[in-house]
């Protein structure tokens, strides 16, 4: 009787798993049907003329080094080229197309639709690029835009002049084929997404002054986006086009220690660099807690589940049961582990003045991409519990947390800014939480023992 009961329970349990795998998660075969868009009225073929236009965009050295430190001459040339090359958009369709210069270098194209009751949408891209370091690792010079049969080699092909070029060419071809659209939309091209915010802030302010701006929202915003991935999931034969629906928060924290000077022949132990090294080791060896199942990664997994094969389909369709196993698998690779937790990376470190002099200071910058479901204060509290400056001898955890929270509550946008203005700014600037460098200074002349607190 006992084993019969066990068998019945097991059969019911297995039936539930299989029901979810093959009934609840059923493939949508229509997604593999060809698009119905006709090519009779338009052509977006990547011909030699378009190749030359793209190469020209890539050849402008629109480098952003840091805030207010950019190659402004090249950015200005790039902006002028865009305005001149796509000048017909404004002259031929002046009844409903306008172009605005924003923050001196950024551009905003406004295409007014026929039906003003429809929510507008926004396309955005940026013309600046990050520096091309270590030129010896480049197959061709990064701003030559060299092309062979398969690739174009240049800084900015993916981030983000490729998107800029594609959006402008699609806009030009659409207006040529169909004329005025039904829905209003905008194309925002910013100049300092990589280092700064004036372009995004100016465009956000401009859009907030439009009739829909104070209490309306965009239908959608399309910016840099992600990539098309292949062979990401075992047994999945189709490529996956990832649609970004959220972006992690972003924050950089700078830890700095100042100490009295001394000579290396009579060293104090540990030195400022030694303290910082232990802190860095703890930060890297202790991960932020997993938030698996609380963010948009769950929708991604549910979306691909119907196209997987047994037994993976059985597992993925029953995350309620196999969640811990999936969480462990995701944690094996940095790319997938970042989907489920706040990532912590030590990106800059410095200290010392001379080889035989004890360092008077040492500093490290830690970059966090905050998980969607995790508040920044929680990430900071977790970072403090990792004892980044060794609480046993040097600093109380609570001091770190209090200092961080006080600073993190400041924002670049004032309370009077509309919600749309803030959301547009965040979208154009690349992050849902603004980059804010936080510096914490710790000064000590002697070790602080636990009993002294």
TrEMBL record:
Keyword Glycosyltransferase: no
Catalytic activity from the UniProt record: (5Z,8Z,11Z,14Z)-eicosatetraenoate + L-phenylalanine = N-(5Z,8Z,11Z,14Z-eicosatetraenoyl)-L-phenylalanine + H2O; (9Z)-octadecenoate + glycine = N-(9Z-octadecenoyl)glycine + H2O; N-hexadecanoyl-L-phenylalanine + H2O = hexadecanoate + L-phenylalanine; N-(9Z-octadecenoyl)-L-tryptophan + H2O = L-tryptophan + (9Z)-octadecenoate
InterPro entries membership: Pept_M20A (IPR047177), Peptidase_M20 (IPR002933)
Gene3D superfamilies linked to this entry: 3.30.70.360, Zn peptidases
GO MF entry, a single one: aminoacylase activity
Gene Ontology biological process terms in this record: amide biosynthetic process; amide catabolic process; amino acid metabolic process; proteolysis
Keywords carried by this UniProt record: Hydrolase, Metal-binding, Protease, Zinc
Pathway the protein acts in: Lipid metabolism; fatty acid metabolism
Family assignment from sequence similarity: Belongs to the peptidase M20A family.
Function noted in UniProt: Secreted enzyme that regulates the endogenous N-fatty acyl amino acid (NAAs) tissue and circulating levels by functioning as a bidirectional NAA synthase/hydrolase. It condenses free fatty acids and free amino acids to generate NAAs and bidirectionally catalyzes the reverse hydrolysis reaction. Some of these NAAs stimulate oxidative metabolism via mitochondrial uncoupling, increasing energy expenditure in a UPC1-independent manner. Thereby, this secreted protein may indirectly regulate whole body energy expenditure.
The name this protein goes by in its record: Peptidase M20 dimerisation domain-containing protein
